[in-house]
Amino acid sequence: MSVDLDKCFEVVMELARNGGKIIRERIYSKKTISTKSDRVDLVTETDQEVEKMLISNLRAEFPDHKFIGEESTAEGIPCEFTDAPTWIIDPVDGTMNFVHGYPNVCTSIAFTVNKVAEIAIIYNPVLEQMFTARRGQGAKLNGKPIHVSGEKDLQQALLILECGTTHEEEKMKNNFKNQQTLTPIVHGTRSNGSAAINMAMVAMGAADVYFEFGIHAWDYGAGDLLVREAGGVCIDPSGGPLDIMARRMLCAATMELAQEIVPKISQIYPPRD
Ligand code: IPD
What EC number(s) does its UniProt record assign (predicted)? Predict the structure, then answer.
């Protein structure tokens, strides 16, 4: 099947902007909130509506393409990653932020062909930050090229850590352990409450390294291509190659920085998607 990547990019950019308009209009209003796997794993009507809008329009334009969507998966549609052209979608990454009116929210979309990421979009419509990447063509913020910081030294690095969307004991203990080990070493730590925005911060050189366990393909699919196209690395937190279905991700400005932090990380292996 031949894929017109320019057309895919053009279509998805317009849809992401349309979805962003809905998110921007509603972020400071009252939402209908439901919980999924945990009392802090949230979904709103906006997550569902934006995902449905994106998938139905992409399907109308590209009937042969497949989809992996956060909310479709939550509704029971199997999460299957194949060689087929596939859109991996998180309609609102940072749902907890969206619920509270904290402006770190984005739509994250990756497009893969033969399991290789070709297009990445991470769009924060509240702060009007449109991060894009095409394989082999670099990474951009609002149309201008962006690059990772180039930092190699963990002591000088700004590290992003997240607690995730579960209070599951093993995961919380592991988060605290990593926080305790790494905070005294690094320059500083941050949490943006959105995996895709965290990765965009590494891509634009505003942060140097970020890892998280328990996230999903829709959280890091787009960020993976964005960070690599910005000159950074995206690997498994054990040091091996990234696996998009493994729910484990580490991205860094340089491989030197990634290799310095990997042996210091306490690892967990969540069930695969
Ligand atoms: C969550 C956010 C959060 C990360 C969680 C994700 P959601 O995504 O990206 O920062 O820590 O692991 O599940 O639920 O807001 O789409």
Answer: 3.1.3.25
- Mutation to probe ligand 1, out of 109, 163, 219 (largest number of atoms < 8 A from CB): 219
Is the pTM above the cut of 0.90?
yes
Low-confidence ranges of the chain (pLDDT < 70): 1
DSSP assignments along 192-222, one per residue: -S-HHHHHHHHHTTS-SEEEEES--HHHHHH
Structural domain spans, the chain: 5-145, 154-262
Q: Name the residue at shortest CA distance from atom 4 of ligand 1.
A: 164
CA 235 to chain centre: 14
Of 160, 96, 94, which is closest to residue 127 (Cα–Cα)? 94
Distance 248 CA to ligand 1 centre (A): 13
Find out whether the beta carbon of 165 lies less than 6 Å from any atom of ligand 1. yes
38 is in an annotated binding site: no
For residue 197, report the distance from its CA to the centre of ligand 1, in Å: 10
- What ligand 1 atom has the least distance to the C-alpha of 96? 15
Look up the CATH number of domain 154-262.
3.40.190.80
Q: What is the pLDDT of residue 78?
A: 87
pLDDT at 178: 98
Q: Residue 144, SS3?
A: strand
Per CATH, the homologous superfamily of domain 5-145 is: Fructose-1,6-Bisphosphatase, subunit A, domain 1 (3.30.540.10)
Residue nearest to atom 15 of ligand 1 (CA): 94
Residue 152 burial (10 A CB sphere; 0-12, 13-18, 19+) = middle
Would the CB of 164 count as within 6 Å of ligand 1? yes
pLDDT at 129: 98
User: What is the structure's pLDDT at 44?
Assistant: 93
